[in-house]
Amino acid sequence: MAKIPYGPTYDEMLDPSLLSKDVRARALTALVNDELDPINLFNITWKDGSNQVRKIVLSSALTGVDANIVVMLGCGFPSGSHKVGPAYSTLIEGIVDGDIVPGEHTILGPSTGNFGIGTAYVSKLLGFRAIVIMPDTMSKERYERIRKYGGELELTPGSESDVILTLEKTRELMKHPKNRALAQFELFPNYRFHRHVTGNSALQAVKGIGNGRIAGFTSAPGSAGTLAAGDQIKAVFPDAKIAALEPYECSTLANGGRGQHRIEGIGDKMCTLIHNVLHTDFVILIRDEETVQGVKIFHDGVEALVNVGVDRNFAMSLRNLFGPSGICNVLGAIKLAKFLRLGPEDNVVTIATDGFDRYNSVLDDLNKRSLDLAPQVLERWTHDIFLNAGEDHIFDFRKAAIKERLFQQKENDWLKFGYTKSFLDSMRSQDFWDGQYAKVSEYNQKIAAAR
């Protein structure tokens, strides 16, 4: 059997101070100097070198709400996105369970981008061949990053709205006995990573901010892994409201809608298997063009932000921290804060999945489509998109009769992939999800023992 470097436990990803000082120091050095050093597996954490959650708090001058919008920053993870966390967790669980064997198996990663990048990255560090299955209209930077990490691409027709085709292609490739899938939409290591690592990091991120509590959490589903953070937030703050965000152009969860959109990083036309709909209080629709315009404002609109009252240094710090899905999450947080009438002591937490580094081509496309991008235009966009975000297109799913449609959507999506109705029905109980989360302790022990 090939020798591979093992990485962190779930507890160590949540709290890297549990690592030996030598490992932590070497990992932080490699994060800057050599991203392909396997020691970078120990940098899979929301924490910075001072063991603080990487985050920013957006000012009311930008958001137009009194509540604190706390944004956790995913661009500090190795490979540039927090999606590397669930990719690693799924792979390492498979290894310690004996289902994935080094030197024998090829790793499949169905994705619309960042999870595929994370799959290629952790496979490279752990010594596996990786094939990433994704739509053929994603940003070229995403394809380039996957190839940079040695990943191979298997492209399917369509866009973010056609993620179901990546699942079908993955099922086809899984027929080969040497292939093993890190199926982010249906495997529970994704849920465990985000509930334990992201959820508890979110709870730590609001300490010292406002009342120190979380009133709301927003995230576009994608695989719905990130939404699992809401389960942990609700375990501590039961009154917290969790909002899933969808493109206005493809409102599958909200009302069964279908369509094409351009918010890279958001899969749709489905309710993913690992989506705990019990804790989805709201579904909020975000227009795709506004997310791209938001990236333009943050990256090129420093003067526009200063003109609406944002501190210049803070405005400059935003330039490389967001992609379209991060802007989507911020817009959802603003709309939720307005809808809930939250005040200056209240906190809404959300996620910036990645940074700007994989979206130059997206802005190039916007620049070609826009007739005028003068500073005053960006300032108008800032008012229209952020400060004047409305309370429209917010769907309340707190009543059981309304939530039933999400359960039905999940049945429609997953029975055809071989899951039984009894298994899907078991997800109607929070006990099911708590049982999945309880396995974190088991895998902490397995990973530590293997290491």
Can you characterise this structure?
By secondary structure, the chain is of the alpha/beta class. It has three domains: 7-43, no CATH class; 55-79 and 191-396, Rossmann fold, CATH 3.40.50; 84-183, Rossmann fold (3-Layer(aba) Sandwich). Helix content is 45%, strand content 12%. It is built from 19 helices and eleven strands. The strands form two sheets. Strands 1-2-10-7-8-9-11 form a seven-stranded mixed β-sheet, sandwiched between helices. The protein has a four-stranded parallel β-sheet with strand order 5-4-3-6, sandwiched between helices. Helix 5 (114-126) runs parallel beside helix 6 (140-148) and helix 11 crosses helix 14. 54% of the residues are buried. The mean pLDDT is 91.
Secondary structure elements and their pairing?
Layout: H1 10-14, H2 21-33, E1 55-58, H3 60-63, E2 68-73, H4 84-96, E3 106-110, H5 114-126, E4 130-135, H6 140-148, E5 152-156, H7 163-173, E6 179-181, H8 188-205, E7 216-219, H9 229-236, E8 241-247, H10 252-255, E9 282-286, H11 288-300, H12 302-307, H13 312-317, H14 324-339, E10 347-352, H15 360-369, H16 375-387, E11 394-396, H17 400-414, H18 421-426, H19 430-450
Quick summary:
This protein is an alpha/beta fold and 451 residues long. It contains 19 helices and eleven strands.
- Helices and strands, in order, run as HHEHEHEHEHEHEHEHEHEHHHHEHHEHHH
Helicity range of the residues?
Answer: 40-55%
Strand order of the largest sheet: 1-2-10-7-8-9-11
Overall outline: globular
Parts with pLDDT < 50 across at least 5 consecutive residues: none
Q: Report how far the terminal alpha carbons are from each other.
A: 15 Å
- State the CATH architecture of the largest domain: 3-Layer(aba) Sandwich
What percentage of amino acids are in beta strands? 5-15%
The structural class is alpha/beta
